[in-house]
Amino acid sequence: MKRLLVHHLNDVIEIATQIRYVAVATTLVAGVAFFASMQGCGYAYKTCSSCPPPTKQLQFVYTANSAGTPSTVAALTVDPVKGSLSAIGGSPYSTGSGSIALAADPSSKFVYVANALSSNISAFTINQTSGALTQIAGSPFPGEAGMNSIAIDPTGQFLYAVTGNSNNLWIYSINTTTGALASLSSTPVALAANTVSNFIEFDPSGNFIYVAARGSTSSAIYAFSRDNSTGAVTALSGFPVALDGLANRGAFEPTGTFLLVTGTNVFGTAGGVDVFSVNATSGALTLTAPPTQVGDDPAGVVVATGVVYVPNTSDATISAFTLNFNTGALTAVSGSPFPSGGQGSVNGPVGITTATAGNFVFVCNASNDISVFSVSPGGALIPVSGSPFSVGGSAPSAITFVP
User: What are phi and psi of 242, to 5 degrees?
Assistant: First the structure.
């Protein structure tokens, strides 16, 4: 509508100028600008005073809660302006046993929960209006004991899972209409002998998959190229790549230039972060520098607006670093590490995620609550009003944001 109005406006101005009725054209400019502004506000040909306030689009966070029989997944709405959380009706929802990881598909239609003790994956549809969850027919889907990390490819057609009990990599096709899972006949794919896995991550392009696996005393990353049509994987040459300490969690920053991996016992009892540059063509990893020290028992890592955040479970803190996108260097943010904000004496952070816009950071704590922080221009974390917010479930182990 704006484009049509502006097109007609240009014609009017030309005619008005030719006949020197500039005042008329000026009046029309003001009128068109007024109507265009009403359109932009969603009001269209009404005066703002006669219209209801614009509707805020809700966002959601979900946590996998490992305690209880059955375990649960909690669902909360996010106020996109304030960052505050509110429990969704019906939450928490029953899953399997030992719910320890979760992931949402890229279209925000489905949520999947890995149940480490019941050896399966629970699947739910997301109500696009309320965020409420409904279990998908056939759920939970068979898996393996110890499944502790799941990832969905950028097209939303395949789900990949690894386990802390074996060296298996599982691959499932996703029915994009119903959300149901079906394991591929070629799976599980064996990783290195005598290892167990800690996490699985896609690079943002979806062409490569990275898995961190532990042996008895060390950890390494294994990598695979992926057939986007079939979901099948092929091991990349040049791997495994050694990690510092015992790997915990990893994440790509949004451009896919760097992969960040946290490990425990890198600096004595303190953890560390390895930063790898990624070759977009081959998938190869190159360590950019020695590890950067964080707190004890780092439980995750995310990147929001160029700042890296690492929750440290044993310290009940969050380490924050700016990321140099040319070199991969990390520089501590002033005031880091920040208190993680859980309640009670046992309150360490065990999972972390961010809003898509990077303006909020969400941390689930061992105290069965979620701390929410706004992000300052320099990367400092500022607790939002009302934080922390109750999860409604017990022993949250992972958290994800759904726009």
Answer: -65, 145
Give the residue among 307, 297, 292, 299 at the shortest CA–CA distance from 374.
Answer: 307
Tokens of 313: 């479970």
What's the CA gap between 209 and 297, in Å, rounded?
25
**pLDDT tens-digit readout, 197-245:** 999 999 999 999 999 999 888 999 999 999 999 999 999 999 999 999 9
Contact indicator for 99, 64 with CB cutoff of 8 Å: yes
Q: Residue 244: CA atoms inside 13 Å, Cβ hemisphere, count?
A: 24
Residue owning tokens 């700016």: 322
Specify the pTM. Answer: 0.85
User: Residue holding tokens 């490992």?
Assistant: 66
Q: How far is CA 102 from CA 64, 99, 160, 344, in A?
A: 6, 8, 11, 25
Whose CA is closest to 287, among 258, 315, 266? 258
Tokens representing residue 389 in the block: 């917010």
CA distances from 105 to 65, 198, 288, 394 (A): 19, 21, 31, 24
Task: Indicate the Cα dihedral angle 361, 365, 368, 374, nearest 10°.
Answer: -20
